[in-house]
Design a protein that fits this description.
Elements: H1 2-15, H2 17-45, E1 57-63, H3 77-85, E2 89-96, E3 100-106, E4 115-120, H4 125-128, E5 134-136, E6 148-152, H5 153-160, E7 169-172, E8 175-183, E9 195-197, H6 200-203, E10 214-220, H7 226-236, E11 247-252, H8 253-256, H9 271-298, H10 304-312, H11 317-354, H12 366-392, H13 396-400, H14 413-445, E12 455-461, H15 465-475, E13 481-487, E14 498-501, H16 502-505, E15 515-523, H17 527-530, E16 535-538, H18 546-549, E17 552-556, H19 557-562, H20 567-570, E18 574-575, E19 579-585, E20 600-604, E21 615-622, H21 627-641, E22 649-651, H22 652-659, H23 661-695, H24 697-705, H25 710-744, H26 755-782, H27 785-789
Parallel strand pairs: 4-9, 6-8, 15-20, 17-19
Antiparallel strand pairs: 1-10, 1-11, 2-10, 3-4, 3-7, 5-8, 6-9, 7-8, 12-21, 12-22, 13-21, 14-15, 16-19, 17-20, 18-19
Helix pairs in contact: 1-11, 2-9, 2-11, 2-12, 2-23, 3-7, 9-12, 9-14, 9-23, 11-12, 14-23, 14-25, 14-26, 15-21, 23-26, 25-26
Length: 792
């Protein structure tokens, strides 16, 4: 019987190619989307689960007045507290606060290699993170003494080739390390590194409670409550450290990746994107399901004779339901195969957009494939249930007399409702895409307060005053380099912050009892002119004598406003310990436009023997016609003045563009989603229009015989669906507007979502809908009424 159902289903699909293509291809595209998003969601939800008993690994997260949000940076003494005062702790490890990019080379080889990710940790690191396999030397432990390093196998191959690296020496930031083991770091790990090294500072757990330059992790013997452990840690914070350690949290390792304490990029580690992309995938699947239901109902008139004969021959209703569900299963299985093929073909582009390395042909993807098959059967089953019940319930006598029983409500309200729902989703996605691109254009064209074109920055170690001067002067000895400056930071990477009361910075602050967080930047006299900044009051460092600028400061407008001054009145105000305000710089953005402009203070570096920053940045503005020559000159000069430098450079405009890579990718993703949704909706409308024209062919023939023009026939057929699409736009666009307003709240500076976005969306949706139905409408106009009415 089942075989017969499938044979009949196959014959039915062959007889109705439009119906088959729209349903099978549409559902296949939707399933491909669901499979890809399923892989993404699975990968996001399984981070760090490769560690045995990963839920027993806990991370200490701390809030304090220097952080804008909870962070994993924690004082090292927490490690001692975990070891001594928290019951059930098996191992505790301390690491550096971040994985640093530094040049790594073989010991004795002065030639610099490319920068590698270096993590500093103690001897318990691999006991806590036991999911990292370690091939060791004969010693029981690794990293238990300063000067030891464990490399990833890929780095070992790059440095040593096929030779064994164990016992070999490495030079990292001027320090020598001995390789004592090899390991592997999966992509699904929140802790990433190319090599992990031990240093005396990391091994020492008795440093100050006020230092937040490390991270602390613990492995419990059994599952424990993170809240209970956090409460114990908070009680252990000494009184003198309470102003710095304001809130202590403990997060289990599998939950860390999707928490606010994890700094993610692109679409990684951010729960809102899981909900967003998952919802969109389901909506696309609904559109494909609506197509199936709509076309199944629409073609019912063409199957009434078949159903009537079967019922008259004694077929029971459940047998007819089984037959129709057989068609549904065949459509689902065929669509699933097509979806899997499409997903495999689209996976490279998907990985590029999402920054992933996903694959369908892996054991890990098995559950996603099984879920996709179940989704295909369930979606097609639900979509085909209503048409199956309608068709199987026909009365044979009425059917064989030619009476139609397929109208679903007066005027076919169900079919119209499904069309409205499809295009409402499509309109919402199109509107969202338009707004995302509007915001992206705004971000990329907004004035940043400085001239970022052709400005290259080179990260260096901290330099003495003499070496700074030598590097700057030698860099200018080439026509390809127009201006140079050396500073501690440049816009886009000003991370150092100082938070204190306003009166601690200046007794002349007009706003009392308020704290401020400023970002100090150590600069030379050329910094302002090299970056093309504008001084709107007072004078710059280059305009005054060396003695005068030693105690002078340049403030941006936001800093001046925070202190209750105006640019004119701020000049000459006391600032700092013994200095005053030398001038005011027009506001400039120091980070992405997600954040408002921060208070910035430019501090002169000339004349200071010990710069307060541990790093230096060479900034150079290149000539427009000699960019490559200028870069080559900078590379040569930098490597001569700063021995061992790898000359890692970044163009300033690229640095800011990288801040919006997520928005750029989001725009392209929404284009894809909106394109898929509207293509599926139009495929359904195309098929529905085909059956509508077929069902009304006699009416249209009579109208033409009575003198109706082709224009009136075309308007008659287009008006009904145009009205439905218009209603869909009125439903979908406002809902999408609410959604994009929530997204725009992430930005301190936003584009204006005006009437233009609504008009563009309405025009696009109506245009593609019109194209979908115009083919069949034009066919109806060109049909000879004599041929239609010949048999009447």
């Amino acid at each position: 019987m089942i075989t017969n159902y499938l044979k009949v289903a196959w014959r039915t699909l062959r007889k109705r190619p439009v119906y088959a293509v729209v349903n099978v291809l549409g559902l296949g595209i939707a399933l491909a989307t669901c499979l890809l998003i399923g892989l993404y969601v699975q990968d996001e939800l399984t981070h760090d689960t490769f560690h045995p008993h990963a839920d027993r690994i806990l991370s200490v997260v701390v809030e304090n007045k220097f952080f804008d949000r909870p962070r994993r940076n924690a004082p090292a003494p927490f490690a001692s507290v975990l070891s001594t005062k928290v019951p059930g702790v098996a191992h505790v490890t301390s690491t550096s606060s971040r994985t640093e990019l530094v040049p790594v080379r073989l010991a004795g080889n002065r030639k610099a290699t490319r920068e590698r990710r270096v993590l500093k940790a103690d001897s318990s690191f691999f006991d806590v993170f036991s999911g990292f396999p370690v091939r060791r030397t004969n010693r029981e432990d690794v990293l238990d003494a300063p000067g030891e390093a464990v490399l990833t196998a890929s780095l070992a191959e790059a440095l040593f080739g096929e030779k064994s690296p164990i016992g070999r020496g490495l030079q990292v930031e001027g320090d020598r390390y001995t390789v004592v083991g090899l390991t592997e770091v999966p992509d699904r790990s929140t802790v990433q590194f190319d090599l992990v090294v031990s240093t005396p500072k990391v091994l020492n757990r008795s440093v100050s409670w006020k230092e937040f330059d490390g991270r602390v992790y613990a492995r419990m013997r059994q599952a424990a409550s993170p809240d209970a452990v956090a409460a114990t840690l908070e009680k252990a914070v000494p009184e003198e450290a309470e102003p710095f350690v304001q809130n202590v949290q403990v997060i289990s390792l599998p939950d860390l990746y999707l928490s606010s304490a994890y700094q993610a990029d692109r679409f990684k580690g951010q729960p809102r994107y899981l909900y967003l992309f998952g919802t969109v995938a389901l909506l696309i699947l609904f559109i494909a399901g609506f197509n199936y239901a709509n076309l199944s109902i629409a073609q019912a008139d063409r199957r009434t004779g078949e159903v009537g004969i079967r019922r008259a021959m004694g077929a029971r209703r459940r047998q007819l339901v089984g037959q129709f569900f057989g068609e549904t299963v065949l459509v689902a299985l065929t669509a699933y195969v097509i979806g899997a093929v499409l997903a495999t073909a689209a996976l490279p582009a998907f990985n590029t957009l999402f920054g992933k390395e996903l694959a369908l042909a892996t054991p890990k993807a098995g559950w996603v494939l099984i879920g996709g098959l179940g989704t295909a059967v369930l979606a097609s089953g639900l979509a085909g249930a209503y048409p199956a019940l309608i068709l199987s319930g026909f009365q044979p006598a009425r059917t064989l007399r030619g009476a139609s029983q397929t109208t679903v409500g007066e005027g076919g309200w169900l079919q119209k409702g499904l069309v409205v729902a499809q295009f409402a989703v499509s309109a919402a996605l199109v509107f969202g895409t338009v707004v995302v691109y509007q915001q992206l254009d705004y971000l990329q064209t907004k004035d940043l307060g400085f001239d970022e074109e052709r400005v290259v920055t080179v990260d260096l170690d901290s330099l003495s005053v003499d070496r700074r001067r030598a590097l700057r002067e030698r860099a200018l000895q080439h026509p390809g380099v127009k201006r140079t400056a050396i500073s501690s930071h440049v816009p886009g990477n000003i991370q150092h912050q100082l938070k204190s009361d306003l009166t601690d910075f200046s007794d002349s602050a007009r706003t009392q009892n308020r704290s401020v967080t400023i970002r100090p930047v150590e600069v030379d006299t050329n910094y302002v002119t090299t970056l093309g900044m504008e001084i709107i009051a007072g004078r710059g460092f280059a305009e005054v004598s060396r003695g005068r600028r030693r105690n002078g400061y340049l403030l941006n407008e936001t800093t001046v406003e925070t202190f209750g001054w105006t640019p004119e009145t701020a000049v000459g105000k006391p600032f700092g310990d013994t200095g005053d305000v030398l001038g005011v710089v027009k506001d400039f953005h120091v980070e992405s436009l997600r954040n408002p402009i921060a208070p910035v203070v430019l501090v002169p570096s000339d004349g200071y023997d010990s710069p307060f920053s541990s790093r230096s940045v060479l900034t150079a503005r290149l000539a427009s016609d000699r960019v490559e020559a200028g870069l080559d000159h900078l590379r040569q000069v930098t490597q001569e003045v700063v021995a061992g430098s790898s000359f890692s450079y970044t163009f300033l405009d690229d640095r800011f563009d990288q801040m919006y890579r997520a928005e750029q990718r989001l725009g392209r993703i929404f284009v894809g989603f909106a394109g898929i949704a509207i293509a599926l909706a139009c495929m359904g409308l195309f098929g529905l229009a085909s059956y509508t024209v077929q069902r009304r062919r006699q009416e249209l023939g009579i109208r033409k015989a009575l003198g109706a023009t082709g224009k009136s026939i075309l308007g008659l057929l287009s008006r009904e669906y145009g009205l439905l699409v218009g209603i869909a736009f009125l439903l979908g666009a406002p809902l999408s507007y609410w959604g994009v307003r929530q997204w725009l709240r992430e930005f301190a500076y936003q584009t204006d979502v005006g009437v233009g976005a609504f008009m563009l969306t309405a025009g696009l949706v109506l245009l593609v809908a019109g194209v979908s139905i115009s083919y069949h409408a034009l066919q109806a106009v060109r049909t000879d009424p004599a041929r239609v009415l010949r048999s009447e």
